[in-house]
Design brief:
7 helices; 12 strands; alpha/beta; seven-stranded mixed sheet; three-stranded mixed sheet
Amino acid sequence: MIAIIDYDAGNLRSVEKALIRVGGEPVITRNPDVILGADHVILPGVGAFGDAMRSLSEYGLVSVIHEVAERQIPLLGICLGLQLLFESSEESPGVEGLSLLKGTIRRIPSDGPVTRNASAGAAASDPLKIPHMGWNSLHFDHPGRLFAGLSEGTYVYFVHSYYLQAADPSIVTASTFYGTDIHASVEKGNLFACQFHPEKSSDAGMKMLENFLSIQK
């Protein structure tokens, strides 16, 4: 059974449908016993960092998520779910994240270069659209179990205005570029997270979800 944590952050049904498509048995829940009894746990989310942390706290889910991590139950954060696993976000100054991983969530610079090799003039004349919404290719920085069977340059779907800057580059399994270098996916032990949406990333995303479901405690 796969527990999809419900904390009023949206994007639950699309994750549920994708998991069913790859043969999973998802349950949308905020019941601590159900979450801790699951074989896999997913923390999805679309919304604001501060609002999300308040909801997790109000529902008593902060300690539950920490216990999931302590028990080594495979946990996957998606989009906002990735950001919440870290320490803080520029979106909500003064709000502490789950701090399961070290790093900061920063705003994508709208005056950043369009491509990694663009000149400053190109950046100034063609500002980035924020939020970043669309398909970007992944560079695999380190081997990641989510990406088994996928090729360098795989395209995935992003919707976000803030991005991860992980404190420990060794946990970064994939990155992309949009105005700046973005840590797009991380893995540490049985903690996994993606800034992009695997459930919206066609066959490649389905493969990532299949890979996640194959991971055991």
